[in-house]
Structures are given as structure tokens and as C-alpha cells.
Design goal:
alpha+beta, three-stranded antiparallel β-sheet, 38% helix, 17 helices, elongated, 644 residues, five-stranded antiparallel β-sheet
Length: 644
């Protein structure tokens, strides 16, 4: 059977029995896991009672009666690595002598059990815990004293191996920016529902709170916060993040602090600010006597300096309570504005009427605290970052640091546009060009022809060959160049074995077969084009001018001889019946016809105009090449000639 994975169960509302409150209910599968976890400890559980649960998060706590006394068993709703940070902090505080419940170890000496995808812990149950008094300053002062002791003893905490490092120390700027942005959302929502009565009232005050938030944030930017946060997480220790009248209770020796699930690194006065402002909100008035008494009680347990007091004042002046009460408008605007918003605004505005007078007098107390020591050069280490829940497989996540200065960053060099060479590919080495440009080593692989290359090839075919050899560069060695067989103008690289000549070094085509590239033994032997545009690629081999003149004269003589020979043969055919005629020059040999046949192939090589061998007479065509009537047989012609 697949293991049950613990998660929120608030979606079960409406499916459980009527009258059951989800905060007092857990799924049966979760309770079954709790009993199995309890079996891993050295104790016998007689009964287990659910104290409270968090259906929207998936957490719960039970009280157990065991043979070792009352104990509690708790499933931590956060992810295991984050929960391990809290478990390690609780064990650290117990060892430091803080008044927090001690952890009970399992049979195999572990501080926790992982089941259902969550961490489980078992702690001692302190029966005599009661809430501090809320009706007088003494109870509030006791609560602040216990908080100061907790903060002081938590300094120096290092999370255990494998735990996620939870810190809110660098997140103060992000917190203020978030609230300023959401106050703007309140305005937009109120403008979207103008028909509701609470909308106009919210619009009448939201601009004032937006202005307050921005002014305090600008003062915060000028404070000592960067230098203070640069001291590092262990220097300041842990903040509870949810400290109040229920999580700090009176017990043996003073205030006991419970519910350490959400502890994180932070400036400790964030807990003190939350306690003071929530107390003033509950009272409905900002009482300066209570505020000073609570700060002084905390100061006696964990001394604060002038810079810390300044941050405390700024954090109290920020409109935290207004944001906390009105933020529900984002989730259900219509329902919230129709049922709750008017009453909340009444409460907030009453407290606001006394807030600034109390803060104005409290600001004068800053001179009563000594300045702290926060070196200026360490302030640059801090960067505001988002909350991180990650872990590097048991390694502690380091504090965010600034990027190194530009002088320390290695420059990024751009590599030249050179074709990479594989060690297994053959390489053709081009001769050194004395133009000041660096030589390149190019792999012998022919790239695909582009449209531009094809256009150049078509243009090369259309250009007539240049007859003037004086404009061409002189060849130093003709033997190393491939010879063209055709006298007509040929474009570059008609044969795959011909080496193409690049007009631009970047556009140099590469032969596909390395064997087809002629490599010069001597770099000086290859001709180099001084101007790529003036030199056509892969010129054909041309005969010298003198040779061309001799060839033309010889062809002319051969044509005249052939014409004379045809005239003689035509005359002879009229006198003799033989089909084949003898050449003009008489020979003494009797087989004249055979000798005439031997001359026919030679004449075909000398002239390409005759389609039949020389000396063969076609009786059906005249001298102009036109077909005539069919002649009679030779015997009939002989008889006719004899009669004449």
C-alpha cells in the first residue's frame, strides 16, 4: 500500500460531520502515523489528545500521557530540510540554557522522525505554563524580558548538516517594498467597486498611508541597516517570527517560549516591534508608558544600541497594522468590503490618532542608547535577496555577496572567425600572403554553395575570355596549376579537383576532398592575386598568340586543299564510272582506290566541315550540298558515253 503523504486538509470542510471544527480535527491517516511514530521512542503511550491543528498547512500537535510523564508529539508542516533548521535551533537553545521545551530522542538516538513526508518531534510537556497578564504593564514587561533572553542565547547558532538556511536578515527592503505595492492594490480595488460604501472611505485614507510608507522607507534607506546586516546571521541570532501572548507563557523560572517552527535569522527587534504594535492595536491607543516599559524590559535582558533603537522606531512608524488588517481585501473584495472593512477602518483610525504623538516623543529617547560598532567597509557585503528554502545537500548556504569589481573579472575575449579543425581531418595549407594579414589554417571541407556563389559562377560563364595577356599577372610556375582542356571561357572550379581561389578570406570555399587540393611545395611558387576583383578565378590555359596564328593559317590552307580536291573529284566522276576517286597526286601503285581510302581519316582530323571521308563522291548531292536526281547505274552511263 502506498504511504500516506501529509498535506493540508482544509478542503475537507463541508465533508466532515456537522459541528466539527477543522482546527480540532485531523484525518485518520495522520493520527495513525502519529501512533506509529510514538512507537519509535522509549515510552508507552496510554492516550493521545489532539491539542490543535493547522488544516491549511498540514500541521498538528497532540498531548500524550506516557509512562515517562506527559509529552507532546508534533508534526512540522514545513518541508523536512526547513524543519531541520528549526529542530537544530531548539536543541541549540536547550543546550544554551534557554527556557524552551527539550527534545526527546528516539530509540536510535535521533532528534526527529521523518514519516509521511514531514518531520516529527517529541518534546516534554510543561504542565504549569500560563499566559502572562495582558491587563497591566508588568505582564507585557515579563513577555519582553523573556524575548530578550531568547534572542541573546540564540546568537551564534549554526544549522545542522543538511538543513536549509532560513534567513530574513537581508529581506527588510523587500518587505517594505511589498507593503507599498499592496497599498496601491487597495486603492485599485476600491476604485473597481465604487458602488460599495466602504470603497469611498478607503479611498479617502489610502493615500495618507501610502505617503507614510514611502517616507519611512526613504528614511530606512539612510539608516545603519546595511552595516548592521553585514555583521552576518550568527551575530544577531534567531527571531521567533510569531512571538506573542500564546507562544510566550509564564512557567518555572520565567517566560517559556514554545512553537519554534518558524524561527529564522533576523534582526531581533523585529519580534519586539510586532509585540509592541500588536499590543497597541489591542489597546486601541498608543500608550507611550507601555511602549517605553516594554523596550526597557527587553533592553535589560538583551541590550540594544542607538542604531537598533532607530530601526525599531522606523519599523513601528511604518503602517504595518493598517496593512495587516486590510490585506484580506485582496482575496474576497466584495465580501470583505461589505461585512468587515468599515469596522476595521474605525479601529485603525482610532489608534492612528495617538500613534504619531507617541512616536514623536519616543524618538527623543534615541540619545539614551550608546552607539553600536558597525564597520563601514562591511556594509557592501549585503544584498537584498528573496527568502531561500534551498539547501546544497547538507552544506550551509552562504550569505549573498557582491559581484567582484570589474578589475577582478577576467576579460572575455572574442575568438577570431576561424573554422575549427578536427585532428582526424586532412588539412590543406594555403601559401603565406604577404599583405599583413595573419594566415589561417582551414579544414579541407567544402561548404554548401550560397546564392551569392551561384550568381558569381553564372557571371563568370557569361564573361568572354581576355585576349590581352599583359594585364594578367605573370606565372612563376605553370606546372603547379591545373590545365584547362577547353579553349572556351570556363568558370572557376568546374572540376572538383580544381582549387578555387577565394576573393575574400572570410568567404574562402574549401574543397571536400583533401586530395583534390594542390599543395605547393614552395610557397613562392603559387601565384597570388593582388586584387581579388581584377583576377578571375581558375583561368583556363591559353595557347600563345604565335601558336594561334599558325593554327589559323594551317586551317586556311587545309580548307583550300579540300575545296580543290573536291573540284577534281567532281570532274573525274563525270569521266569514270568508279565511285571512289584517286587523290590529285598520281601514284605508281595499282591499288589507287585503297590508297584514297587511307587518306579519308586524316582529312577528317584536319577539317571538321566534311561529314564523309575525303575522296568519296556522293552522286545525289551537287557541289552546293543539295540533293539531285538519282543517277543511273555506272554501266548505263558507260554505254551512253561510248555512243557519244
Amino acid at each position: 500500500m502506498e504511504e500516506y503523504r501529509i498535506g493540508p486538509w482544509d478542503h475537507l470542510e463541508g465533508t466532515v460531520d456537522p459541528g466539527i471544527v477543522l482546527e480540532q480535527y485531523v484525518p485518520p491517516e495522520l493520527e495513525a502515523i502519529a501512533w506509529k511514530v510514538a512507537e519509535l521512542y522509549e515510552m508507552k503511550v496510554s492516550d493521545m489528545t489532539l491539542v490543535t491543528s493547522k488544516p491549511d498547512k498540514g500541521g498538528a500537535i497532540w498531548k500524550m500521557n506516557t509512562d515517562r510523564g506527559p509529552r507532546s508529539i508534533k508534526v512540522l508542516h514545513r518541508e523536512p530540510k526547513r524543519s531541520l533548521f528549526s529542530v537544530g535551533s531548539q536543541e541549540y537553545l536547550v543546550n544554551q540554557g534557554a527556557r524552551v521545551p527539550s527534545l526527546i530522542r528516539t530509540k536510535d538516538d535521533r532528534l526527529y522522525v521523518e514519516a509521511g513526508g514531514k518531520l516529527w518531534i517529541v518534546t516534554e510537556w510543561i504542565e504549569s505554563l500560563v499566559q502572562a497578564s495582558k491587563i497591566d504593564l508588568e505582564g507585557a514587561a515579563q513577555l519582553c524580558t523573556g524575548l530578550g533572553e531568547f534572542h541573546k542565547l540564540s546568537q551564534g547558532y549554526i544549522p545542522p548538516f543538511g538543513a536549509a538556511r532560513s534567513t530574513r536578515l537581508p529581506r527588510w527592503p523587500k518587505y517594505y517594498e511589498k507593503i507599498i505595492a499592496k497599498i496601491g492594490w487597495f486603492r485599485d480595488i476600491a476604485q473597481a467597486y465604487p458602488e460599495l460604501s466602504a470603497s469611498s472611505r478607503l479611498l479617502s485614507i489610502v493615500d495618507d498611508y501610502d505617503r507614510q510608507a514611502r517616507e519611512i522607507y526613504e528614511k530606512f534607506k539612510l539608516s545603519s541597516y546595511p552595516r548592521m546586516a553585514a555583521m552576518g546571521d550568527p551575530h544577531w541570532g534567531l527571531a521567533h517570527q510569531d512571538y506573542g501572548w500564546s507562544n510566550g507563557q509564564m512557567g518555572p523560572g520565567g517566560i517559556w517560549i514554545i512553537d519554534l517552527d518558524g524561527v529564522a535569522y533576523d534582526l531581533p527587534i523585529r519580534d519586539l516591534r510586532k509585540l509592541i504594535t500588536s499590543t497597541m492595536d489591542d489597546m486601541g491607543v498608543w500608550d507611550l508608558t507601555w511602549i517605553r516599559g516594554m523596550i526597557e524590559a527587553y533592553h535589560q535582558a538583551n541590550p540594544i544600541d542607538r542604531e537598533t533603537f532607530e530601526l525599531l522606531w522606523l519599523d513601528m512608524a511604518f503602517p504595518n497594522e493598517f496593512y495587516k488588517h486590510v490585506k484580506e481585501i485582496v482575496y474576497q473584495p466584495t465580501l470583505f468590503m461589505e461585512t468587515e472593512l468599515n469596522g476595521i477602518l474605525d479601529r485603525v483610525l482610532i489608534a492612528e490618532s495617538t500613534k504619531w504623538q507617541a512616536l514623536a516623543e519616543l524618538e527623543q529617547d534615541k540619545a539614551n542608547y550608546v552607539p553600536g560598532h558597525y564597520p563601514e567597509q562591511e556594509a557592501a557585503v549585503l544584498l537584498p535577496v528573496e527568502r531561500t528554502e534551498r539547501v546544497l545537500e547538507g552544506q550551509e548556504l552562504p550569505m549573498p555577496e557582491l559581484l567582484p569589481p570589474a578589475a577582478m573579472v577576467e576579460p572575455v575575449t572574442t575568438q577570431p572567425n576561424i573554422i575549427p579543425i578536427s585532428p582526424m581531418e586532412p588539412v590543406a595549407v594555403l601559401p603565406l600572403i604577404e599583405t599583413g594579414q595573419p594566415t589561417r589554417r582551414i579544414a579541407a571541407s567544402r561548404p554548401r554553395r550560397t546564392a551569392k556563389d551561384k550568381s558569381q559562377r553564372r557571371n563568370a560563364k557569361a564573361l568572354p575570355p581576355k585576349r590581352n595577356t599583359k594585364t594578367r599577372p605573370a606565372r612563376q610556375d605553370v606546372k603547379v596549376l591545373p590545365l584547362a582542356r577547353d579553349t572556351k571561357a570556363q568558370p572557376a572550379a568546374q572540376d572538383a579537383k580544381a582549387l578555387p581561389v577565394a576573393q575574400d578570406a572570410k568567404a574562402l570555399p574549401v574543397a571536400q576532398d583533401a586530395k583534390a587540393l594542390p599543395v605547393a611545395q614552395d610557397a613562392k611558387a603559387l601565384p597570388v592575386a593582388q586584387d581579388a576583383k581584377a583576377q578571375p578565378a581558375a583561368k583556363r590555359r591559353r595557347k600563345p598568340a604565335s601558336s594561334q596564328k599558325r593554327s589559323a593559317a594551317k586551317k586556311s590552307v587545309l580548307k583550300k586543299q579540300a575545296a580543290k580536291k573536291r573540284s577534281v573529284q567532281k570532274s573525274a566522276s563525270l569521266l569514270k564510272p568508279a565511285v571512289r576517286v584517286t587523290p590529285p597526286k598520281r601514284r605508281t601503285k595499282p591499288d589507287r582506290s585503297k590508297q584514297a581510302l587511307k587518306l579519308a581519316p586524316k582529312q577528317k582530323q584536319k577539317t571538321s566541315q566534311t561529314k564523309k571521308p575525303a575522296g568519296v563522291f556522293n552522286p545525289n548531292k551537287n557541289r552546293a550540298g543539295k540533293t539531285t536526281r538519282v543517277r543511273k547505274p555506272a554501266a548505263a552511263n558507260n554505254r551512253k558515253a561510248a555512243r557519244r
